[in-house]
Design brief:
Blueprint (H helix, E strand, L loop, with lengths): L1 E3 L12 E2 L6 E2 L3 E4 L3 H13 L4 E3 L15 E3 L7 E5 L4 E5 L4 H10 L2 E2 L11 H7 L15 E7 L5 E5 L4 H7 L8 E8 L1 E2 L2 E10 H6 L1 H7 L2 E6 L5 E10 L8 H25 L4 H8 L6 E5 L1 H5 L7 E9 L3 H14 L8 E6 L14 E9 L5 H13 L3 E2 L9 H7 L3 H11 L8 H7 L2
Parallel strand pairs: 4-6, 5-6
Antiparallel strand pairs: 1-4, 2-3, 7-8, 8-12, 9-13, 10-11, 10-12, 14-16, 14-17, 15-16, 15-19, 18-20, 18-21, 19-20
Length: 444
């Protein structure tokens, strides 16, 4: 078991940990990188005996302090790779530290795929599912909703195996546990034979896409769009299954759209906008017209995901799907009336209802509005104004993205919130896995 840093009599500590966006940091007493589940169990037992809190951290793609600790930081990256494939059952079991990118590549080699996924794949499977990472889908839900079984190390070092049939009350909650119930060691996902998706990307006016939102949602398996603040312009994306064959974007087209415009030029204009905020509306009008319509076909992860190298801070709320257009129009009116300068587009996606206790789509067909600000740009005024709108609609914030809600609020928007906190009391009565973030969102 690799361990670095101690908090002994000398008071020495490990180096600070920072998340991907740089808005969260922590200095743990020690960092442990277990090479086996047994070593992880021992690390948890030892931490509890030493009176230290325990948090597992993936690749740091959350914008909240869900994984921050001044106790023991578990890095599960050595617990990686596919453990088993059951083609008859249509499942794959993977270790918790497996990065989604590696899982997608490995599944593709086996002729398999997840049904749905988010738009980036740099997270570990346990980090992505524990915070509710999702893509967009009319019928197919978040990554956590595709879990069929999991293993969890609890506060006393016990290893629990959970599924719909085995410890179903733990399974219902631990698929999206925010790190509050224990440390996930492996996940079993439902998979299916590899298939093709045809993507249609098309610019569309804000008025048109909002007027036709229900139609686009009904007619497409996966529909999403981006609105560019300070403009009436959007870019839409529709992903639907097709017979193939693969017809990916040409090398030049892909480089222009995904690298030059979406990363390189986008980085430059955001940096310029941060330095000269008054220029942002003009930049937005130009940028929103730069993307052109295109259609391409490929295997799922190559269509669902894209490289994201421009760093930002994000807030995202899940709203009842039937209220999302109303809320988005209110958001646009707020931005138009304000002196805010927003250089990042606003993203809108959907999800069907699921049965996970604290899923943002739990028992409710949902649509998501995500607001972003470029890294290093003050975001509080924008996010506060947006959050005020989202909460008026009973919004549920993404567990891994910036928000200011607390346990009292969540008890009002999650009918099964008490079920989750009661399970936490049973599995972790001493709050071995606690931290300030969990104290705020779950109570003590």
């Amino acid at each position: 078991m690799a361990t670095t840093g101690t908090a002994g009599s000398s008071g020495t500590r490990t180096a600070a940990w920072h998340n991907w966006a740089g808005n969260i940091s922590a200095t743990p007493a020690r960092v442990v990188a277990p090479a086996s589940v047994g070593e992880l169990q021992e690390a948890v037992r030892r931490a509890a005996a030493d009176g230290l809190k325990v948090k597992a951290v993936g690749t740091g793609h959350s914008f909240t302090a869900a994984a921050a600790t001044d106790g023991v930081l578990i890095r599960p990256q050595a617990l990686a790779g596919i453990r088993a494939i059951d083609r008859e059952a249509g499942t794959v079991t993977v270790a918790a530290g497996t990065v989604l990118k590696d899982l997608n590549l490995a599944l593709a080699r086996e002729g398999l795929s997840l049904t749905n996924m988010g738009d980036i794949m740099e997270q570990t499977v346990s980090g992505a599912t524990s915070t509710g990472t999702h893509g967009t889908g009319r019928d197919s839900a978040s990554i956590a909703a595709q879990i069929r079984g999991l293993e969890l190390v609890t506060a006393d070092g016990e290893l629990l195996t959970c599924s719909e049939k085995e410890r179903p009350e733990v399974f219902a909650a631990a698929r999206l546990g925010i790190g509050a119930l224990g440390v996930v060691t492996s996940l079993t996902f439902a998979v299916e034979p590899l298939f093709f998706l045809t993507a249609r990307e098309e610019p569309m006016s804000f008025d048109r896409v909002t007027a036709e939102f229900d139609q686009h949602h009904a007619e497409n398996e996966h529909f999403e769009f981006y609105w560019f603040p300070h403009t009436g312009n959007c870019n839409t994306k529709r992903n639907n299954r097709s017979q193939g064959p693969a017809a990916p974007p040409g090398a030049v087209s892909a480089w222009v759209e995904d690298e030059l415009l979406s990363n390189g030029l986008f980085q430059a204009v955001n940096s310029f906008g941060r330095a000269v905020p008054a220029a942002i509306p003009s930049i937005a009008r130009i940028a929103s017209r730069a993307l052109s319509a295109r259609t391409y076909t490929d295997i799922p992860y190559k269509v669902f995901t894209s490289p994201r190298r421009v760093r930002f801070v994000e807030m995202e709320y899940a709203l009842p799907r039937e209220r999302v257009v109303e809320a988005l129009r209110e958001l646009k009116s707020m931005v138009d009336r304000s002196g805010l300068r927003i250089s990042f587009p606003v993203e809108v996606r959907t999800a069907p209802a699921d049965d996970i206790t604290l899923s943002t789509a739990s028992d409710r067909e949902s649509a998501y509005i995500a607001v972003h600000m470029y890294k290093g740009t003050p975001y509080q005024a924008y996010f506060t104004a947006a959050e005020r709108i989202f909460t008026e609609y009973g919004g549920r914030p993404h567990w891994g993205k910036v928000h200011t809600r607390d346990a009292e609020y969540f008890a009002g928007v999650y009918p099964r919130f008490g079920e989750f906190t009661a399970l936490r009391d049973r599995l972790d009565p001493d709050r071995v896995f606690g931290n300030d973030y969990l104290r705020r969102v779950l109570g003590d």
